[in-house]
């Protein structure tokens, strides 16, 4: 059966020809003119607003913005399914290693700041919560609003799903890496949390400030770092001054230093025009505004 | 959300049922207040059913959470290999299953995990089934990336880069020759302590039998193995490793020889390109053996990676002396889990050079 006869140069040529052929199967032109962004649901509205404005400036560029959560976006980024990952949390050590296994250096650019707002129904008499009270509510230690100074009613705890960057960030910062209560309802998006709170006087939820600010039937609850300390609202000033205790940066992850079309897009996001969009959508600008 | 939907559906059914159940001779006012009271009672009952631990939904959630504590994964490496060095008349080319791994990992508590991995492919040893990993881990802070871990059982030697790197993620079909020779099977039985993997400086050290996987210890000496890695920047990792032990010669089991290995490695990442190298030197059954490898890999597209690895191994016990190898290949991702690899290995011996180049075409798929 030894019918295969290959010389060294034949084999090398075969490796290169097949390899280059496989690489050539990628639609090069499409890759050069289209950009896929995937990841954080918190950042979807911001990404869409940026993409719309950018496509007006560059009509020959096709931008596609998809959500799914930071974890989902990072997985897609590692698998080469998107050009930019929108993430509301930093990549974990495991994810960075997975990137390296694919010869990718994940490079994060901070493009905006966000205060994770705590929202309740507007009829809820609660006017502030401490970080400890929030932890007790979300770990299931406290189950009735009466225990934190509210009315005698059960607390309906709303959370994002585990693929969400906000879920992970909230767990690390507020829950101190403890587990969420088994009774916490895991909602597929921040929009779903918003809708549930509007219809449920006993619900509490968290999410990007842009989803709750000025929304009918929703009250954003100021948060205090500890008992006896002043409760702070998630305003731009408080987030920039780091007075609001649950604030975080929002990232765009790229493979290596952003260059070419992707670099141009990120430059736009950080430009005065891009940062005005950040403010318009409801997040906090990190760049200078003219 | 599913709970909310389920609650809504149950409420609608309850409302419908109540509406049908109302007697026709009640007054409109009485009917409204009675209905409202009935609805409230039903809603309370539904809430209780949903929220109470003994409720059917909670039981299902609990069962799913238990199932999620057990993860099954694995991969298959199916290969066509053309080997020039096969003796005349013997098969120079063949299909084989280089690795067929099945891994079961369970985490019964936040701080304890168990891992079992078997190989069903046989590899070069042609055994039908072999245990690869069988170890338990204790996480001091419930997350190995955030806190230290204690591992006990049959696990990989904590040495260098390629020994600990999984074959499921390595670009080349095989490890470098120096690693394959000085760390056969890459595993042993013992116990090791590892610091948090997220740390800028990471180290792990352990005590092992020194006899390799699936083998009982044959002496009272234990081997000390460890490595330390520093993350100098987002782009650069570098580490050193050591292995200090004793080995018995099979021909004379009364004589113990030094069994030492020392290593240094680095990995540099740059815009879709990685550069990795590792040097290992040591004493093995009275011989000083050493070798190194260096590899460059570049992603030409998100799905295509070109790889070149240079590999040197000097084994004084070998009649052909130092061996140099070039491994040139291409990796193409067919989808998120499946890769097609095409590699050609050029081998060059110091003395009595022979034709022993190898072509490998491989499909590897993970689940």
Describe this structure in words.
The complex is a heterodimer of chains A (290) and B (367). By secondary structure, chain A is of the alpha/beta class. Chain A folds into two domains: 32-113 and 249-281, 3-Layer(aba) Sandwich (D-Maltodextrin-Binding Protein, domain 2), CATH 3.40.190; 114-247, Periplasmic binding protein-like II (D-Maltodextrin-Binding Protein, domain 2, 3-Layer(aba) Sandwich). Helices cover 38% and strands 22% of the residues of chain A. Chain A contains eleven helices and eleven strands. Chain A has helices spanning 8-24, 28-33, 44-57, 70-78, 93-101, 131-139, 165-173, 190-199, 236-240, 260-270, 272-281; strands spanning 34-39, 62-68, 84-87, 106-121, 129-130, 156-160, 185-187, 203-208, 218-221, 223-224, 247-255. Chain A is globular, with a radius of gyration of 23 Å. Chain B contains four helices and 16 strands. The two termini of chain B are 29 Å apart. In chain B, helix 1 packs antiparallel against helix 2 (28-51). In chain B, a hairpin with a 2-residue loop joins strand 12 (287-301) and strand 13 (304-314). At the A-B interface, helix 1, helix 5 and strand 7 of A face helix 3, strand 10, strand 12, strand 13 and strand 14 of B.
Structural topology:
The complex is a heterodimer of chains A (about 290) and B (about 375).
Chain A: H1 8-24, H2 28-33, E1 34-39, H3 44-57, E2 62-68, H4 70-78, E3 84-87, H5 93-101, E4 106-121, E5 129-130, H6 131-139, E6 156-160, H7 165-173, E7 185-187, H8 190-199, E8 203-208, E9 218-221, E10 223-224, H9 236-240, E11 247-255, H10 260-270, H11 272-281
Parallel strand pairs in A: 1-2, 1-3, 5-10, 6-7, 6-8
Antiparallel strand pairs in A: 3-11, 4-8, 4-9, 4-11
Chain B: H1 2-21, H2 28-51, H3 56-68, E1 70-83, E2 93-106, E3 112-119, E4 130-139, E5 149-156, H4 177-182, E6 187-194, E7 201-208, E8 223-231, E9 236-249, E10 252-270, E11 273-284, E12 287-301, E13 304-314, E14 323-333, E15 338-349, E16 358-366
Antiparallel strand pairs in B: 1-2, 1-16, 2-3, 3-4, 4-5, 5-6, 6-7, 7-8, 8-9, 9-10, 10-11, 11-12, 12-13, 13-14, 14-15, 15-16
Helix pairs in contact in B: 1-2
